[in-house]
Amino acid sequence: MLLKLEGKNIRNLDNFSVRCSPCANIIYGKNGSGKTSLLEAIYLLGRGRSFRNRDAKTVIKAGQSELVVSAQFDRHQSGIVSKIGVLRSSKGGFEARQDGRVIRTAGELAAQLPIQLIHAQSFLLLEGGALQRRQFLDWGVFHVEHSYMRLWRRYHKALKQRNQLLRHDRLRSSELDLWSRELVGLSNLVAEKREEYLQLLIEEVANICIGINSFVGMSIEYYRGWDYQNNLEEILVKDLERDRKYGKTHQGAHRADLVVRIGGAPVASFLSRGQIKSLVYVLKLAQAAIFQRKTGLKCIFLLDDLPSELDFWHRDYLLTSLNQLSCQYFMTGVDRKDFANIIGKNSHQIFHVDKGQLAS
Questions:
Q1: Distance of CA 52 to the CA centre of its chain
Q2: Which of 68, 79, 86, 266 has the greatest number of CB atoms lying within 10 Å of its CB?
Q3: Left, alpha or beta for 99 (phi > 0: left; psi -120 to 50: alpha)?
């Protein structure tokens, strides 16, 4: 939970220092005023990068050489306050610290501040390619089993080594066999961890979807990245010529996917865009609920332009679910009136953004 947030040289925002509500934080203002930039600052604390553009130079205020965002936070909501900060420079520099300790990777940041983001592109989780769904699944596994990150890195190292060998003119078969066996073993381990997590996800999604008729008959299945009825080692042998031709491994855990259907049809072809957005919210809420149950910690939700993304009924259902989880959330919108039901019900903080100036 964030207690106090400070930022310097973040896009068009003036330097700011604000106190945060433990529950609802509402940021409203005209389009282009800097609302989303505030969410971006929080995301930088949890991921070390922007969700709008991976190039840090685009996030740094024009004419400045670096940005800084920092916060006081209570990770366990136990009254013990920690400090965390991130600096990004226009030359690509990255520095992060927690209570004076150097944080070297984005994974370490993510472990300290678990963030769930929902914005205009979130529908790609269901309508986009398999990469988004693998990343969604891996986020969940990583946050409930931290050893998974080491396994994931070992897998990608083996994949990289095998692909490099495939691209060599003179293929060293003994070395290729070594990395192929490594890839097979790690593929099976990654698939097992993902499948274990998926069972938890399916149960939690079912709990959240009670009362949402649009998702009756929904199924979520995991595709391993190869035909699970066949041995991956044998598949790699059969695929060798194709893999050599293209210089990459075509089957394995890196090709996995989540297949979400309703009535046997992919949800992307069955549901409306609004329903798809609602389902993305359900999946993110389910992930947060699993994380909370397994770790005792809570996710921070960033909800960009919530009123335009969901109708009133689905918006109210989402916020009720967030409040049941006791999650802290930050949401943006154009008109303060759109948040009248929140203001009347919940503990909240309201921020108005106008021409880069943030006022509470």
A1: 13
A2: 86
A3: left
